[in-house]
Structures are given as C-alpha cells and as structure tokens.
Amino acid sequence: MRKLLLLFFSVTFLWVTGCAVSSKNSVKNTETRKQEALKVKEECKNYVSQMEKCLKTAKGKDYRKVWKECEGQVMWDMLKEYQDNGFCFDEDECKQKVLDEINRCLDERNALFRKHMK
Predict the structure, then answer these.
(1) Choosing a second label site near 49 at 20 to 30 A (CA), which of 31, 110, 113, 115?
(2) Residue 89's pLDDT is what?
(3) Angle at 43 between CA 70 and CA 60, to 5 degrees
(4) Rounded CA gap, 28 and 14, in Å?
(5) How far apart are CA 34 and CA 12, in angstroms?
(6) SS3 of 68, please?
(7) Is residue 82 a contact partner of residue 88, using CB atoms and an 8 Å limit?
(8) Rounded CA gap, 22 and 111, in Å?
(9) Which helix (H) or strand (E) holds 85?
C-alpha cells in the first residue's frame, strides 16, 4: 500500500512539474513572437502601415471587433485610393485588386494581428 501511495505521489509530482515547465515555455514563445520585428514585403507596406495606424488609434475592449472595423476601414480606403488614382476601370475590378493585395500579404497580416493582440 505504501509503495502504491509513493508511486502515486511521485507520478503526480512529475506531472505537475512537467506542466509548469511546458506552460512556462509556451509563454516565452508567445512573448518572443510578439517582440519579433514585422518583416514587410514591399508590396504590402501600404496595407500594413494603414492597419497599424488604425489599430493604434482604435478604441475598444474587444480586439477582434476592433480588428474587423480597422480592416474594413483600410479596405475602403484602399478601394478609394485605387479608384482615385485610376488603377482600375470599374468598382468590381478595384475590389478584386484590393482583395488580391490583401491576400498577397497574409503573412504580414497574421504577424500584425499577433503583434497587436492584447
């Protein structure tokens, strides 16, 4: 009976210690990812700069809601920019160009989301 009790306590101790170390490493990895410099491709600088500007000025407690609002605003601003500068002929073509530009910037978009996530 004592051996069984000793075995139980030793397994429990090892399990608790392992979980503590695992969660500690997880926190370090998350902090490291947030501190990494955002590497931006040349074609994504416009999108990233507008999103960062919006996220810094946005107010709200729900980060996902703030993200959606900023992304909508940035898409609208990029659409107007494309139309004003004559980069496309009709609204559908402009919308597609904006979506294509954002889709080319998925890595930057994900890194930006992680960077500003609170």
Answers:
(1) 31
(2) 85
(3) 15
(4) 21
(5) 33
(6) helix
(7) yes
(8) 23
(9) helix 63-85
